[in-house]
Write a structure and sequence with these properties.
single chain, 435 residues, alpha/beta, 6-stranded mixed beta sheet, 4-stranded mixed beta sheet, 19 helices, globular
Length: 435
């Protein structure tokens, strides 16, 4: 995974040549012999991830004395509010780390640079089209543009207590042969005994998890006709919702204590064997690997499948501010930062999945240790998350979907009532965003 300084320098020169000069970017306005200075807003927060980000910035700066990058630490908690202020004031960073759902609004408002004519061929071809689809949006004038480079993605997996899984006699699923949802429910029932449960569903933030898994049955939750987007909760969307609800209240195989918890909150009970299976994002493996008691054995299993194993893809991204005076130099830095070897480092640091095909083939991404082989294999099931293109999704998620799904999973309303709220209240929200 390490690159010698000489190799790094050679790789950078190659990528810089591939990026080329010109291309419409504003050229450096620095004084002669003064290096171009670029600000890079990073949202990395885990210790390993921050270290990987800073290491790559240092490598770049040593090899490129004429283009110097300043690492600026940001936070996922307030980044979009911060960017709105910076864009309006003309003080936005040159290179911006964010996630793909946030790009749509910034793109249509003219704050982000369209990268489609600036992407080096090597970078463009290394990242599959479904990942590029997550960063392709309307510019607000009817034209499609590419407003970021997608580099990290999250899939849903199941983290399992190996001892309880083996004792249950259930078939151990593999990426090539995952459990069906029926098999998953049957396995959870087998593991429910002696006051302990088969599965735990932490649903404090239920929307992304359930919407992404709903694609297992073709559930999209949104539909567009005649240029107007509305909420849809039909048989396909109800499948996963009903199955989780059944585990809680019909099979009684899901631990009710986990219901109001955040993703990582059930881990202490998991280590004690209070339940056997924990559906979660791939990043949660890091906490299990670092915090599990000595002797605790765990494995990563693929998410269950319905009529397909599809999951919605949302990407972490690097974008360039429309007002950047050094767009070409910023693109050269991005091309280096997100090459295959470096994406593997970043994915390892964040415990997420690289979009780069070269990175996905890195031995660090395919080892059985800590379930990397299963996690990386799950990327083949990614399709563009339908909600990614929905203007107003964030408000629908916060004001309508989150409280409605919390009520449904708490058994306070029926699935019919939940569907009505999601659709009727949701459409009132979306109506305000229709152009």
């Amino acid at each position: 995974m390490r690159i010698t300084s000489a190799l790094a320098a050679a790789a950078i020169l190659t990528l810089a040549a591939a990026c080329g000069g010109g291309g419409g970017g504003t050229q450096s306005s620095s004084a002669p012999n003064e290096p171009v200075k670029i600000n890079f807003l990073s949202l990395a927060w885990q210790k390993e991830s921050v270290a990987a980000n800073k290491q790559l910035v240092d490598e770049w700066n040593k090899a490129n004395p004429n283009i110097q990058v300043t690492y600026v630490q940001g936070s996922w908690d307030n980044v979009n509010d911060q960017l709105v202020t910076q864009f309006a004031g003309g003080t936005a960073p040159d290179v911006i780390h964010n996630d793909s759902p946030a790009l749509s609004g910034f793109a249509s408002d003219g704050y982000l640079l369209d990268l489609k004519d600036k992407l080096p061929a090597e970078l463009k071809s290394d990242i599959p089209q479904p990942a590029w689809d997550t960063v392709t949006f309307d510019d607000g004038k009817g034209q499609q543009g590419v407003y970021g480079v997608p580099f990290l993605q999250e899939s849903q997996v199941i983290i399992a207590n190996k001892k309880l899984l083996d004792a249950s006699g259930a078939r151990v699923p593999t990426p090539d042969n995952p459990w069906t949802w029926d098999e998953f429910s049957a396995a959870a029932k087998k593991m429910t005994k002696g006051g302990n449960f088969g599965v735990a569903w932490p649903m404090k933030s239920p929307v992304n998890k359930t919407l992404n898994l709903a694609l297992n049955f073709g559930g999209t939750f949104f539909q567009t006709a005649d240029g107007k987007t509305t909420v849809k909760v039909g048989p396909e969307e109800r499948e996963v919702l009903q199955r989780i609800h059944d585990q809680l209240y019909k099979d009684k195989s899901a631990d009710p204590a986990a219901l109001g918890q955040g993703t990582a909150d059930p881990l202490p009970a998991f280590y004690k064997g209070k339940f056997a299976l924990l559906p979660a994002g791939v990043y949660l493996r890091q906490q299990v690997a670092e915090q599990a008691p000595q002797g605790f054995e765990w494995v990563t299993l693929p998410a269950p499948k319905g009529t397909s194993a599809q999951q919605g893809a949302v990407s972490q991204t690097l974008s360039i501010a429309q007002d950047s005076k050094h767009a070409d130099e910023a693109m050269k830095f991005i091309a280096f930062f997100l090459n295959g070897a470096n994406q593997a480092k970043l994915a390892k640091g964040d415990w997420l999945l690289p979009t780069s095909q070269a990175a996905a083939a890195d031995p660090a991404m395919t080892t059985k240790e800590n379930g990397w082989d299963v996690a990386t294999a799950s990327a083949k099931n990614f399709v563009v998350a339908p909600f990614l293109k929905v203007n107003g999704f964030d408000e629908w998620k916060t004001k309508v979907a989150t409280p409605t799904l919390q009520e449904y999973f708490a058994n306070k309303i029926t699935i019919d009532q939940a569907a009505s709220k999601l659709v009727e209240d949701g459409n009132k929200v979306l109506e305000r965003y229709q152009r």
